[in-house]
Design goal:
Layout (H helix, E strand, L loop, with lengths): L5 E4 L7 H14 L3 E4 L3 E3 L9 E7 L5 H14 L3 E6 L3 E3 L7 H9 L18 E6 L6 E3 L2 E4 L2 E3 L12 H5 L4 E5 L3 H4 L4 E2 L2 E6 L5 H7 L1 H9 L3 E4 L8 H11 L4 E4 L17 E2 L2 H10 L6 H12 L5 H15 L2 H9 L7 H11 L11 H14 L4 H11 L5 H19 L26 H14 L4 E2 L10 H7 L2 H4 L1 H14 L4 H14 L4 H15 L10 H16 L1 H31 L3 E5 L20 H9 L12 H16 L8 E3 L9 E5 L4 E5 L2 H7 L6 E4 L3 E3 L5 E2 L2 E4 H4 L5 E5 L1
Parallel strand pairs: 1-2, 1-18, 2-5, 5-14, 7-11, 14-15, 15-16, 17-18
Antiparallel strand pairs: 3-4, 6-13, 8-9, 9-10, 12-13, 19-20, 20-21, 21-26, 22-25, 23-24, 23-26
Length: about 750
């Protein structure tokens, strides 16, 4: 049931399952193997992403409901396409309590509720704390409910009567409504990261698993091909959960949203095909960079920004900040499990900060825990005795203390690194990506090949990705950013001009904005303004989500506006754009073909078959013009030029997906191919067992060499380029001829 490829669709009220069903013909013609759907179960009204499920027993009517599901399933089967669905086992949405029947019942009845076991609530800590109150407004009793503005809450039986004081009735409930600002340190239920409107679910309980996966079981019975598992790191027992899921879906292709740090491997014990592909994304990012430019780029960054801290130092600071501020409630819950140790909360937080991966899965990864404890003791020697006392319990997978520490470690990594440090340390924004490592810059071609050989050997059915709904910037933005180190002084001059003209006091953040302008080009102004505001708040330095500094944010917005409106700065931006556009497109086509043909099951995120200039969400979830894509696809009669339309990327995507679907036997191995000649290191090539990929890297440097010149590659047999239709005999072939039309080639007999 493993698909040849997947195509991710964001199903939402504005693009329903019925819309997806009507798109199946286009996807089939594109060469897609399976339709890959974002979460479908009933979610909070108005949710555009679906990760806030409120009723796991039914498909969301706003997303097309059961009728839309059946239409999509029938359409996919009619064109021979599989179906893969994204599911969310870690949490349920509670922003609107009355929309979540289970949560409503728990609020009404407390521990007596039939659903009390569903949610990860610290009942011993007292009433359920709900951080929903603002600075104004009063509680009201309306129709047998407690109301605060539009918020509605149930009342326990016999807890009120007409004429009662709302505040007195409130104090009789199984919950307490508190000011929103108290959530980070007083919350009494597990949440998804720092989002208090997503309550953790106890799927480790077999009855809870069955109840919350009833509709998933129905999908399996209906014959879906696969499941994508959201955020397994939040679960109490990820290994046990995946074993349960495998029993439920013994034949399904299952991939997990597991972010692997450099050198980390997916646990071999997990009964899954692999991850969702951020590791592959990082490998492609790195091989398209010129590793030899790292020292120059590093010196430029430090000179322009004044930042002398290392990436590791920024990552530690980001993790420490969120552990000390955003996760105080989680620290308190951990500390309550060790009342005999006064410094337990500090020590446990220090271990979470010290983890070099998201978490361990004890007994899997016990060495990661041990290393974290050693590092924590080195950083905080005054906690050494407390750490030593905690270690025996932390090594016990059955101990609640151990379980909750591992859950906290993942959350601290995600929020402290991806959502904080990545917006502070801006040496190279293209490397600040989910699953990436900002401390590294570029890789050797042999390292790329080694990574692909490893995937082919150990996880050949793992998903690979270039863009997702969670990436910090779109694939073609990263491809354009990869050009900057090749531009040398041209990039340095623009960055300095931008920093001096805008005068932002945080020059690290100004440097991030300068790179963003280079990465996107002059896109719609409002999109860059929205990104700049979000980035400034995520950095949590001069401003933040809970302490907005309007004056600073106005200066940030003014910097973006200046790039559009100031004649001198705009002219500098336009000059840079002219230098980036062609090599950026070369990198984009290279990255796309590498991902679509390398080991693993490639996913195409919606819309990325044309040029993709998206930034972080919600920008990367904008509606896609599928009508234009279908029109271009239907109109092909010859290889299109590389131009603004993006048709060349669509052409290459179709060729690769179609070949993988039609001739899967040509993608069963991996053999690196190397070029001979003066430009040899500008080629990335491999033979998958009959299908050969050739891709250009470092196009600016290649042009400075004068092109491919006498550089050539050995073809094992006569082949046809599936992109251009040109035939090439076996033997030595000049790259100047092989790559005359496109910077990439897809060769097969």
């Amino acid at each position: 049931m493993t698909p040849s490829s997947t195509y991710r669709l964001q199903i939402r009220p504005g693009f329903t399952l019925d819309d997806a069903a009507r798109l199946v013909d286009y996807l089939a013609d594109l060469g897609v193997g399976a339709v890959y759907l974002s979460p479908l179960l009933k979610s909070t009204t108005g949710s555009d992403h679906g990760y806030d499920t409120t009723d796991p027993t039914r498909i969301d009517p706003a997303r097309g409901g059961e009728e839309g599901w059946q239409a999509l399933l029938a359409a996919a089967r009619g064109r021979g396409l599989g179906v893969v669905v994204d599911i969310v086992p870690n949490h349920l949405g509670i922003a609107v309590p009355h929309e979540n029947p289970a949560w409503w019942d728990v609020l009404r009845l407390g521990r007596a509720s039939a659903y009390a076991a569903w949610f990860d609530i610290d009942w011993a800590a007292g009433p359920i704390m709900l951080p929903v109150l603002g600075d104004e407004g009063e509680l009201e009793l309306v129709d047998g409910e407690l109301r605060y503005y539009e918020h509605r809450f149930p009342l326990a039986p016999d807890s009120w009567q007409d004429g009662d004081d709302p505040a007195a009735v409130h104090d009789r409930q199984h919950y307490r409504l508190i000011h929103w600002s108290r959530g980070d340190h007083e919350l009494t239920y597990r949440r998804f990261f720092t989002i208090t409107t997503l309550a953790g679910v106890r799927v480790e309980d077999e009855e809870v698993f069955r109840a919350t996966h009833a509709r998933v079981a129905g999908w399996v019975t209906e014959g879906i091909d696969g499941l994508r598992i959201d955020h397994p790191d939040g679960l109490a027992d990820p290994t046990g959960y995946l074993e349960q899921l495998r029993r439920l879906a013994p034949e399904a292709w299952i991939v997990v949203e597991k972010i692997l740090e450099p050198g980390e491997q997916l646990p071999a014990e997990w009964p899954v095909a692999g991850s969702t592909g951020y590791d592959a994304l990082a490998e492609i990012n790195q091989v398209l960079l010129d590793h030899d430019q790292e020292n120059w780029l590093d010196a430029l960054y430090r000179r322009l920004t004044g930042d002398q801290a290392t990436a590791a130092e920024h990552l530690e600071r980001g993790k420490r900040q969120v552990a000390d501020t955003l996760f105080r409630a989680e620290r308190r819950r951990l500390a309550r499990l060790v009342p005999e140790l006064e410094q337990a909360g500090d020590a446990l937080a220090e271990i979470a900060i010290a983890y070099d991966v998201y978490r361990s899965y004890l007994p899997i990864g016990a060495d990661r825990l041990d290393r974290a404890v050693v590092l924590a003791a080195r950083r905080r020697p005054e906690l050494a005795r407390t750490l030593a006392a905690l270690l025996p319990r932390l090594r016990d997978p059955a101990d609640e203390l151990s379980v909750r520490l591992q859950q906290l470690a993942g959350a601290v990594m995600a929020k402290g690194v991806e959502d904080t440090a990545y917006y502070r340390y801006s040496r190279f924004a293209g490397g600040n990506e989910v699953g990436g490592d900002p401390a590294t810059f570029g890789s050797r071609i042999v390292e790329f090949h080694a990574a692909q050989e490893h995937r082919q050997t150990w996880t050949p059915r793992s998903m690979t990705s270039l863009s997702t709904h969670d990436t910090k910037r779109g694939e073609d933005v990263r491809a354009r950013l990869a050009v900057l180190p090749e531009l040398g002084t041209h990039w340095a001059e623009f960055a300095a001009t931008f920093l001096d003209a805008t005068g932002l006091e945080n020059r690290r953040f100004g440097y991030l904005l300068a790179q963003t302008l280079a990465g996107t080009g002059p896109i719609e102004r409002d999109r860059l303004l929205a990104y700049a505001q979000k980035a400034a708040r995520e950095a949590a330095e001069e401003t933040g989500w809970t302490r907005v500094d309007q004056e600073y944010e106005s200066r940030v917005a003014a910097a973006v506006e200046l790039a559009y409106d100031d004649p001198g700065l705009r002219a500098a931006w336009d000059r840079l754009e002219a230098m980036i556009i062609e090599p950026g497109r070369s990198n984009a086509l290279a990255a796309k073909l590498l991902q679509l043909t390398a080991p693993g099951i490639p996913d195409v995120y919606q819309g990325t078959e044309l040029w993709q200039d998206s930034l972080v969400d919600p920008d990367n979830r904008r509606p896609v013009d599928f009508t234009e894509r279908a029109r271009l696809l239907a109109g092909f009669d010859q290889p299109p030029a590389i131009d603004d339309s993006g048709a060349a990327k669509l052409w290459i995507t179709r060729a690769a997906l179609t070949l993988r679907r039609a001739e899967p036997g040509r993608f069963t191995g991996y053999r690196p191919m190397f070029a001979d000649g003066p430009a040899g290191w500008h080629l990335i090539g491999f033979d998958r067992g009959g299908a050969i990929t050739l891709a250009t890297r470092l196009p600016v440097g290649l042009a400075e060499l004068g092109g491919w010149a006498e550089t050539s590659v050995e073809l094992p047999t006569a082949v046809t380029d599936r992109l251009t239709g040109r035939h090439h005999p076996a033997g030595r072939a000049e790259l100047g001829r092989l790559l005359a039309s496109y910077p990439v080639a897809l060769l097969a007999p």
